[in-house]
């Protein structure tokens, strides 16, 4: 007979009278793991630690801003009666696609400043992005948000899930699809595959790590988004499904362009630190 669990309190503890939420702790952990993955690969590619820190710091800042702006834009009606709630980010309301867009723009701008190859820095950042997303989904779990439609408890038990996950998916007496877990596992498989394949010198060409992310994440998110109950819409269309399809198309197109344009088929994994990072007229 399984143990019964109560829903997890979203507040982990209080510090000087201020509540510290699990959501914030988990996002902090996601940033830390992303930082480690990014700086290690950036160092191997010849980017010094100060530049790596600047790249990641500002990318995280504007990625979070982009995630919030994106969410607010597509759910503006929710904020009309209380505009100040826009700034209460600890209550939830971040959209990963907004974060990706904000982060990508930031990387592009900083690469111009530091005269770095944009596509190489994007490639370096992809494992950190995967890790940040898969860890960050546990913040949604703690907040009991970003879940799917209702299911039976038996359905969740048949998935062989731990009781603490099953009971956290019990919201006001109704059980829901743990879509956070589906996306966590999907991104985890993608990250593991990427880290295993990346060192093979002839497998990925420059720019194909970005393409891999676009295709992999786009496919998974399109399916998972169809299960969710909190999707942002443009008319009858789910915004994230539209963007997922766009990502997949761009990713496939990028692979074809790289493979067919022979002179730019530069292997991603190379020990030549003098040329792989510097801007070469991009």
From TrEMBL:
UniProt name for this protein: Phosphatidylglycerol--prolipoprotein diacylglyceryl transferase
Transmembrane spans: 20-39, 51-74, 94-111, 118-136, 179-197, 209-227, 239-258
GO-annotated molecular function: phosphatidylglycerol-prolipoprotein diacylglyceryl transferase activity
A cellular component term, taken from the record's GO annotations: plasma membrane
Pathway assigned to this chain's UniProt record: Protein modification; lipoprotein biosynthesis (diacylglyceryl transfer)
Family in the record: Belongs to the Lgt family.
PANTHER family found in the cross-reference section: PHOSPHATIDYLGLYCEROL--PROLIPOPROTEIN DIACYLGLYCERYL TRANSFERASE, PROLIPOPROTEIN DIACYLGLYCERYL TRANSFERASE
Alphabetized UniProt keyword annotations: Cell membrane, Glycosyltransferase, Lipoprotein, Membrane, Transferase, Transmembrane, Transmembrane helix
InterPro entries: Lgt
GO biological process assignments: lipoprotein biosynthetic process
Keyword Cell membrane: yes
Positions with a binding annotation for a 1,2-diacyl-sn-glycero-3-phospho-(1'-sn-glycerol): 137
Lipid bilayer topology: Multi-pass membrane protein
Annotated localization: Cell membrane
EC number: 2.5.1.145
Function of the protein: Catalyzes the transfer of the diacylglyceryl group from phosphatidylglycerol to the sulfhydryl group of the N-terminal cysteine of a prolipoprotein, the first step in the formation of mature lipoproteins.
One Pfam family recorded for the sequence: LGT
Group of enzyme by EC: transferase
Family annotation (HAMAP family): Lgt
């Amino acid at each position: 007979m399984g143990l019964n669990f109560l829903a997890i309190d979203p507040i982990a503890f209080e510090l000087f009278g201020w509540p510290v939420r699990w959501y914030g702790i988990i996002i902090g952990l996601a940033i830390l793991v992303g930082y480690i993955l990014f700086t290690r690969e950036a160092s191997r590619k010849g980017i010094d630690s100060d530049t790596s820190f600047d790249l990641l710091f500002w990318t995280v800042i504007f990625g979070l801003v982009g995630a919030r702006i994106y969410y607010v834009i597509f759910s503006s009606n929710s904020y009309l009666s209380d505009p100040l709630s826009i700034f209460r980010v600890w209550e939830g309301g971040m959209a990963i696609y907004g974060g990706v867009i904000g982060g990508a723009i930031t990387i592009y701008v900083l690469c111009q400043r530091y005269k770095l190859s944009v596509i190489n820095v994007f490639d370096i950042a992809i494992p950190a992005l995967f890790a940040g997303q898969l860890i960050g989904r546990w913040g949604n779990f703690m907040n009991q948000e970003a879940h799917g439609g209702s299911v039976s408890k038996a359905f969740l038990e048949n998935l062989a899930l731990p009781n603490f996950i099953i009971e956290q998916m019990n919201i006001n007496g109704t059980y829901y699809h743990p879509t956070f877990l589906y996306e966590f596992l999907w991104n985890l498989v993608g990250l593991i595959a990427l880290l295993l394949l990346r060192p093979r010198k002839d497998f990925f060409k420059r720019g194909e790590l970005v393409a891999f992310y676009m295709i992999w994440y786009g496919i998974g998110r399109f399916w998972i988004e169809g299960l969710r109950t909190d999707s942002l819409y443009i008319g009858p269309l789910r915004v994230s499904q539209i963007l997922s399809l766009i990502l997949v198309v761009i990713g496939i197109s990028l692979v074809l362009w790289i493979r067919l344009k022979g002179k730019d088929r530069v292997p991603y994994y190379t020990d030549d630190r003098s040329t792989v990072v510097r801007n070469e007229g991009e």
